[in-house]
Amino acid sequence: MKHLIDPTDLSLEEIDEILTLAEDIIADPAAYSEVAKGKKLATLFYEPSTRTRLSFEAAMIDLGGSVIGFSSAQNSSASKGESVADTARIVEKYADIIAMRHPKEGAPLVAAMNVNIPVINAGDGGHLHPTQTLTDLLTIREEAGRLNHLTIGFCGDLKFGRTVHSLIKQLSRYSGIHFVLISPQELRVPDYIKDEILVKNHAEFEEVEDMETVLGKLDILYMTRVQRERFFNEADYIRLKDTYILTEEKLKLALKDLKILHPLPRVNEIAVEVDKDPRALYFKQAEYGKFVRMALMMKLLGLKKPETAPEGETTAC
Ligand code: NCD
Questions:
Q1: Which domains does the chain have, with CATH numbers?
Q2: Which end of the chain is more exposed for a tag (fewer CB within 10 A), N or C?
Q3: Is 129 designated active site?
Q4: How do the residues of the chain divide into helix, strand and coil, expressed in percent and rounded to 5?
Q5: φ and ψ of 42, to 5 deg
Q6: Measured between alpha carbons, how far is 143 from 161 in angstroms, rounded to an integer?
């Protein structure tokens, strides 16, 4: 049974296949509209979500399958004290694949260990978010044309941002990536990301506090919001929340073909005026998210694109 809990659960070849399949789906969505007929996705979301949950659901519907699930812990038996393991064992009886988001690190892994259907981690606490990573990779591959030899700036809450941890973990497997980690002292990437991922993979990285001084050398700028829900006190959040605000004025310092990404939701960290800048790709990025999730679910469920009859051949009646 293949699950997706950590981006490194997939080999680079498998990731390449998923991105290529996503491109194929974008080019001809109608060819995939029935591949998951009769299949059910269960979205078990114990934490708020707009893009991730709805793009998973749209992805399954666009593959011809259907969706069951809950969108908050209050709407599930978790509110009565049911364990993640028990919930997963029940849902396995009703669905073919699970996408789970949970505030606790490791919860989707616990689910995966208790069922015989694929489990996808749709974000676990401040840990990882592998399907956002696939979304980011597809966006970078489509828009920058490559996944290696890039200078990428991560800006904002690098301490609690699971999308950041996940994408750093994945990109450090490619060659020639230079990581520029832009954050206030208090929100720097955790030591385990530096020691066990960046250093271990011999990735080049630098940590800075000032965005303006590094903007000019970035191919990609990955903005993030300060993760209010993971702070221990509100005063710290308020002090740090507006540390970085990307504006058109600041973007004058950036390369003409910079790609600005953001997993969204955006709070204040990107001024709305930036949305019309051709370098702003975050809304397009959210759109790629549906296609990459279609490709991922096809892969985990072992679904294939139906063979089309060769040109000129008609079906006998
Ligand atoms: C992110 C998340 O949930 O980690 N959102 C998303 O899935 N696109 C980022 C965030 O909440 O800041």
A1: 7-128+289-301 (3.40.50.1370), 130-285 (3.40.50.1370)
A2: C
A3: yes
A4: 45, 15, 40
A5: -110, 120
A6: 23
Residue in 3, 39, 127, 129 annotated catalytic? 129
Q: What would the 3-class secondary structure string for 49-100 be?
A: CCHHHHHHHHHHHHCCCEEEEECCHHHCHHHHCCCHHHHHHHHHHHCCEEEE
pTM here is: 0.96
Q: How far apart are CA 249 and CA 238, in angstroms?
A: 24
Instruction: Report the separation in Å between the CA atom of 29 and the middle of ligand 1, taken as the mean of its atom positions.
Output: 26
The single residue of 80, 252, 256, 304 carrying the catalytic annotation is 80
Cis peptide before 265 (omega within 30 of 0): yes
